[in-house]
Amino acid sequence: MWDRLTGTQPDPPWWLVILVALVALGAVLHGPTWRVARNAVTIAHEGGHALIALVTGRKLDGIKLHSDTSGVTVSRGKPHGPGMVFTALAGYLAPPLLGLLFAALLAGGRITLMLWFSLALLAVMLLKIRNFYGLFSIAVTAAIIFGVSWFGGAKTQAGFAYLAAFFLLFAAARPVVELQRMRARHMAPSSDADQLAHLTGVPGLAWVSLFGVVALGALLTGGLMLTPDSGSLPDVPRPPGLSG
Question: How many Cα atoms are found within 13 Å in the side-chain-facing hemisphere of 158?
Answer without folding.
Answer: 20
